[in-house]
Design goal:
Outer Surface Protein A, domain 3; 2 domains; elongated; 2 helices; alpha+beta; four-stranded antiparallel sheet; three-stranded antiparallel sheet
Length: 179
């Protein structure tokens, strides 16, 4: 059995899960999420846990077993706790602002970098305008939005300017030297 897939997903207090056809629905205090059951797997909801089973022992079934269980576990965590990614902007004059569902970043280009947020994802900027917090219930959406914001100006290795995850280590290179 898959080491990940065989472990049932525990439902915390206040989280409900249900299976209708080939869809799994999870509802909690932060919102609702749904997920299409992957091929070669089946999902059952018991009293306070969700159990994922597979059809056979083929390699594809084993892969789908663990993946399906992990996706359901991520949904349960998302609707109960939520996901957060933190970014920081480094560079002279670099800053960010949020207006409604639009993030605008000034990153040294001739134009501002504008990003429209998808539904279910919220971005906040601190008072210094250099620290962004991306929050949401869908792990995939939160990670994607954070990666797309970072992609506007990834940290460069010479001066370290750019958008980076909090705690990300950037290896600095030595610049050109005169001989």
């Amino acid at each position: 059995m898959s080491r990940i897939g065989k472990v049932p997903v525990q439902l915390p207090a206040g989280v409900k899960a249900s299976v209708k056809g080939q869809e799994v629905f999870v509802e909690g205090s932060k919102g609702k999420l749904s997920f299409g059951i992957l091929p070669h797997t089946s999902v059952e909801v018991e009293a306070d846990k969700v159990v994922v089973k597979r059809d056979n022992d083929s390699a594809v079934s084993k892969a789908m077993h663990g993946t399906c269980r992990a996706r359901i576990a991520n949904m349960v965590k998302g609707v109960s706790e939520g996901y957060v990614k933190k970014l920081e902007i480094q560079g002279v004059g670099f800053k960010a602002s949020v207006a409604g569902q639009v993030v605008t970043m000034i990153l040294g280009y001739a134009h501002p970098c504008v990003y429209n947020l998808p539904a279910g994802v919220k971005v906040t900027v601190d008072d210094s305008s250099t620290k962004l917090t991306v929050e949401g219930i869908d792990k995939n959406d939160v990670g994607r939005v954070a990666a797309e914001l970072r992609a506007f100006y990834p940290p460069e290795p010479y001066k370290g300017k750019g958008v980076r995850y909090v705690g990300e280590h950037v290896v600095h290179k030595e610049g050109k030297t005169v001989q």
